[in-house]
Every structure is written in structure tokens, then in C-alpha cells.
Amino acid sequence: MQLSRQTRPRHILSSSTGHRSQHGMAQPAMRTTRRCPFVPPPQTLTAAVQIINAVPVKRLNSILTRIAQRHHEVEEEAFSEDERYSLQVALDIDPKAVSLLLDTLSFFFDTTQIILKTWADHGAQLVDTTRNQPFFSTSLVDTRWQASVQTASHTQTRTTVPMGHLQLELADNANQVPLPTSPP
Predict the structure, then answer these.
(1) Per-residue three-class SS string for 30-70
(2) Which of 38, 30, 40, 36 minimizes the C-alpha distance to 9?
(3) Are 19 and 9 within 8 A, CB to CB?
(4) In what residue span(s) does the COMM domain sit (predicted)?
(5) CA distance 110 to 116
(6) Cα 149 to the chain's mean position, in Å?
(7) pTM
(8) Where are the alpha helices (DSSP H) in the chain?
(9) How far apart are CA 59 and CA 51, in angstroms?
(10) CA Rg value for the chain
(11) Are 95 and 39 in contact (CB under 8 A)?
(12) What's the burial of 118, exposed, middle or buried (CB within 10 Å: 0-12/13-18/19+)?
């Protein structure tokens, strides 16, 4: 029994081979819902990337724009059956490849949206936490310096010798205790 497009239920894709309808009949692979995107197996992802790489950039931009525009419409597909057929003809690929292309691009778009939202919500806190955590086991706490010029000594009367002393105070980050230093 084939369901019409209007009454066909939306399903979550469980594998790259398709899924079963609510009546237990095999159905072709459909676009996943945005609430629970599918994670393609590595070989499917590799095939999808090859298809994506074969699509001209201008056409790929149009497809991604359509996916972005229709992203908020959870119950509607980004592309109708007629538009999918037009893509199939324009890209000269089979229907499975069109579905794989659109599913993968939707998956990438959804994943990117999740990452962007997470970064927007928690990025500043992550940057602050990372910025305040030292990268090394010891850190520089204080510096002291002294510069002088010795113009003569008892053995040489016309010599100028510049001298500099630099003292660095280090702290052990694990214990926040200053490490012992020797005086200049």
C-alpha cells in the first residue's frame, strides 16, 4: 500500500537503506525530522561528501539557502517531490543520491545550528575559563630588574661595562605557592 504525499507519516531515518512505515512496509529513505537528525554511517557520509563535492558551488548555495529558509518549518520538507525530481535531472544523479545529498546537507545544517547555539550560550564562559587557566605548571608572578653601568675598575680605567639583573618570581600553579628564588 503506497501512501500519498499528503498522508505519508514522517519518520526518522534509522540507516542509509531506508525505514519501515507504520504498516511495516519498506519505504524509500526520507528526510529526517529536525528534532532528531540521523547520523550517517561513515561509508554513507563518504558517499554523501562525494556527491556534495560534485555539485556546482552555485547550485549547492541555492540548496543550502532553501534548507535554511525552511528550517523552521518542522512539518514541511525543504524540497517537494517535484523539486527533488528537478534536482535529480539537473544534477544527473539517481533519486537515492538526491535524498542522501539533502539528508546530509540538512544534517550538517542542523548540527551547525546546534554548535552555534551552544557557542552563543556558553562561548564567553568557556573563553573566560580557558583564559584564566594556566597552560604551564608554573607561572610568572613578579619581575624585578636592575640596570647599571660600571665605568671603571681598579684594573681598567676607561672601560664601560653595562650590567643588568633580572629577577623572576615564579609560582607553582597547582599549589599557588611562590617558588623559592635566589637574590640578585
Answers:
(1) CCCCCCCCCCCCHHHHHHHHHHHHHCCHHHHHHHHHHHHHC
(2) 30
(3) no
(4) 139-184
(5) 10
(6) 56
(7) 0.51
(8) 42-54, 57-69, 81-91, 95-132
(9) 12
(10) 32
(11) no
(12) exposed
Give the end-to-end CA distance of the chain in Å, rounded to a whole number.
91
Band (pLDDT 50/70/90 cuts) for residue 155 is: confident
Contact call for residues 65 and 57 (beta carbons, < 8 A):
no
For 64-100, give one letter per residue: b (16+ CB within 10 A) or e.
eeebeeeeeeeeebbbeeeebeebbeebebeebbbbb
pLDDT tens, residue by residue, 60-74: 999 999 988 887 777
Which residue has 550538517 as its cell numbers?
Answer: 108
- What are the structural domain ranges in the chain? 19-117, 138-178
Cβ–Cβ under 8 Å, residues 33 and 42: no
